[in-house]
């Protein structure tokens, strides 16, 4: 069974990549994540919908660890 995610969880892809914040889980169960890519001196906001099986939770919403 896939891990359950909540808005505010910090996650990354199991295959690696940037830290992302869960924005929401849509009605189809896809997890909408947001992150920033650094491009020179600027940070560009990005988002994408991922299947929960592709993600791992690094920090739960409201957790200090």
UniProtKB/TrEMBL annotation:
Superkingdom of origin organism: Bacteria
InterPro entries, A to Z: DUF2158 (IPR019226)
Protein name: DUF2158 domain-containing protein
